[in-house]
Design a protein that fits this description.
Helix content: over 70%
Structural class: mainly alpha
Transmembrane segments: 9-29, 35-52, 61-80
Shape: rod-shaped
Number of helices: 3
Radius of gyration: 21 Å
Keywords: Membrane, Transmembrane, Transmembrane helix
Distance between the termini: 11 Å
Length: 97
C-alpha cells in the first residue's frame, strides 16, 4: 500500500515535469518549425532549379535528398513535444489496480 502511494507520487512528479517540458518545447518547435518550413521550401525550389542545370546526376540527387530529409524533419518536428505532454498526462492519471 505504501509502495503504491510512493510510486503514484513519483509518477505524478515525473508526469508534471514532462508536461512542463513539453509545453516549453511546443513554443520552441513552433518557431523552429516555421523556419524549417521556409528552409524546406527554399531547398525544394533549389532542387527543382538545379534539376535543369548542367550539374552531374549525383549532385542533382544530393540536392533532392537534402530537400526530402529537410521536409521529413520539418514535418515531424512537432511530434516530440506532443508526445511528451501526452506521456506526462498518462503518468499523472496512471492508476494502479
Amino acid at each position: 500500500m505504501i509502495i503504491k502511494i510512493i510510486m503514484k507520487f513519483i509518477l505524478k512528479i515525473i508526469g508534471f515535469l514532462l508536461v512542463i517540458l513539453g509545453q516549453g518545447l511546443i513554443l520552441l518547435t513552433t518557431i523552429s518549425g516555421c523556419l524549417m518550413n521556409l528552409i524546406t521550401g527554399f531547398l525544394f525550389l533549389m532542387a527543382i532549379i538545379l534539376s535543369f542545370s548542367d550539374l552531374t546526376v549525383s549532385q542533382k540527387i544530393f540536392f533532392w535528398v537534402i530537400a526530402i530529409i529537410s521536409g521529413a524533419i520539418s514535418t515531424n518536428i512537432y511530434t516530440i513535444p506532443e508526445r511528451l505532454v501526452s506521456t506526462g498526462t498518462h503518468l499523472i492519471n496512471f492508476d494502479f489496480n
